[in-house]
Structures are given as C-alpha cells and as structure tokens.
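Researcher: Can you fold this with S-adenosyl-L-homocysteine in place?
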Amino acid sequence: MKKLRVSLATEKKIKKGQLLLEKKDFPHLDLDHQLVDLMDQRGQFLARAYLSPQNKGVGWVFAKQALDLDVAFFRALFEQAKAKRQSYRDDAGTTAYRLFNQEGDGFAGFSVDLYGDYALFSWYNLFVFEQREKISQAFRAVFPEVLGAYEKIRFKGPAYESAHLYGQAAPESFTILENGIRYSVFLNDGLMTGIFLDQHDVRASLSQGLATGKRVLNMFSYTAAFSVAAAMGGALETTSVDLAKRSRDLSQAHFLENGLSLDHHQFVVMDVFAYFKYAKRHGLVYDLIILDPPSFARNKKETFSVAKDYHRLIAQALDILAEGGLIVASTNAANLSRQKFKKELDKGFAGVKYHFLVEWGLPADFTYNKKDESSNYLKVFTIKVNQ
Ligand code: SAH
C-alpha cells in the first residue's frame, strides 16, 4: 500500500469530515486507481482512501482506519443502508427509491437504486468499477429479494454505458410505484431510466396539493413525471415542454399508465426559450411553472448553463405567470452552491417581489455527507411570486 503525505490544508479538510480528494490536494500526483494511506505532516496515519479520477476530484477517503475492501466490508455497508430505509420498504405505495448513496452510505463512487424487483448500479470511476464483483456479491447477500440488476457507466472508459449485471433480465419497460402513482421505467436504454428518483419529494408535493386546480407548465419535462404528479393531484391542465422528440411518447405513456385522459394535457416538442416566446405571443398564462433544466445543454444555436443563464428562465417565466403564481425552480448542479443559485434566481426576479414557500434538498433515501455541502447537490425551491 502506497503512503501519501498530505499538506496541512488537506489534513484539516479530512479531519473536518470532507471525503472528496481534489487535484489541488496532490499537485504532483503520479498514482492512479489504487488504495493509498494518507499520512499527516509528521508521518502519522490519517485515513485510507482510493485514487481514481471521475467527473469531480481524483479520489475519495473511505475510512479513518486501515480497512480492507473485501466482501464483508461492503456487506456491512449494505446492511446499514438497508436498515436506514425501513420506512421506504414498509410503504406499499412506493417501489422505487435509492438503496445506497455513495459517501452518504459510507463509500463514494457508486450508487444503487431499486426499481421494483430490480436494482440499478451506477459506477462513477474505474476503481469502483473494478470492485464490482465484490460489491455485487455483498449486495446479493443483503438484498436476496432483488431479482436482477443492471449497471450504468458514468465515467470514460468501458465501451458501453448500460448493461445487464446479474440475475433475471427485467422487461424492456415496466411500471414502478411512487406515492401510489405509476411511472413507466426502463433499465437498459442509455443512462436515463424514465424517472429521476431524487425528485420524489417534489413530485409528492405536486400530487398532494400544490398543483390542485392549477394550470401547470413543466419546462424541460423529459418524461413529464412532474406533470403526471400534478395531474394526479388535480391540476386543471398541464403543458410539458421538451426538445427531445422521444419525450412525447414516454410522457403520454406515464399519463395512460395512470388512467388519465390526455384531453387537458399537452406535450410540446420545442426549445423552452422558443416556447416562452410562443406562449407570450398567444397570451397563455400559467399558475405554476416548473423549471428543471440540465446543468449544461447545447442546441444548434446556443449553450445554456445553470450558473450563467438560470436568471433568463425566471425572467421569461414571469412574463406568462398568473398573478400570485408559483414557480418551482430546480437544479442538480453540484458545482453551484445553494447561495449562488439563490443569487442567480434573484437576478431573474429583477425587483419583482417573491418569497420561498419550501426549500428542498435531497430526499431522505439520498443520504449525503452532512459535512460537505456539495454532496447535497439537489436544490429545489417552491417560490410564491407577489407581482
Ligand atoms: N424535469 C425532468 C428532468 C429533466 S432532464 C424530470 O423531472 O423528469 C433535462 C431535459 O431537458 C431533457 O429531457 C432534455 O431533452 C431537455 N432539454 C435540454 N435542453 C432543452 C431546451 N433548450 N429546451 C427544451 N428541453 C431541453
């Protein structure tokens, strides 16, 4: 095992409970994809970590002792993770949620989601990917009720991004339940699955009162999961806007799954900025507008980044929002702090009065490292506009 001496700044950060190792912690690093022991300036053992670059950082601390990564190690983590989610298991109306969330459950670099009888593993770097035999063996021992599993590759390396991992094959698409609402999902078609599980508390608020009697506009709607929740919660009408052609069929499938007629629900394949213009020109008005863009997007003409352009979404939403209307503003950009996101929103309101009704982070099954704000990446605000 290699020993790496760290700077005082890195030592402090580790002692505070931060787990992500960054390039700036090791300016002269020439090691990769391996376990290391981190030592302080005096040569004393600090923590055990692994090195492997991913979308953020160059590695992760996982223990303050010299632990080995064997099946028993992962088995113990899965047992704790399972115990924490007892309330989800007891809820017959919900069959999809996160079973294991990276550093929040004791080991960063992979997550596991439950979709009905099947599990979905996401690997974020090559080191954890190489541990997957051990990890799935431990998982199967703790979750024997899971019939089969799939995997998603979320780093550059293997020539595939989605594959069957073990056990029974899942149907090409099938239905999961969330708070009694049905959603159609697929586990082996690209990186997406038809639903973003981390938004389940927001969908619950829509289906449990927030959307009742309202005209709802859902921007960047993907499979229209927010619209379905709103419709089930008594929305008068919903309009779902997404650039991707495929989103229309997937969205309609969600509505039909729940026995909803499509009469008052529209699916528009269009750029959101084009739709804002169209709606304004036609005098369309909405009581509730949901904004949930990708962190970064590029179309033929321009790029959109949450950090720089979110204010434009707010400004244009205000043009077509009914008096006293609501905006649900969401982002999953981990590199944008809650405070910076609020500033960006404020820029969009440009003097129009508003206040936050609810401020969401990640839901309880997405356990995160409480000592590192960036690990609670989801930021969603329900905003009342008093214009
Ligand atoms: N809100 C969704 C998830 C959104 S994922 C949910 O809760 O399920 C981001 C979506 O934005 C993708 O479906 C993508 O096709 C869409 N998108 C990206 N850029 C867009 C643009 N300029 N106009 C409309 N849709 C866009």
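Model: Folded with S-adenosyl-L-homocysteine in place. The chain has three domains: 2-63, 71-177, 196-386.
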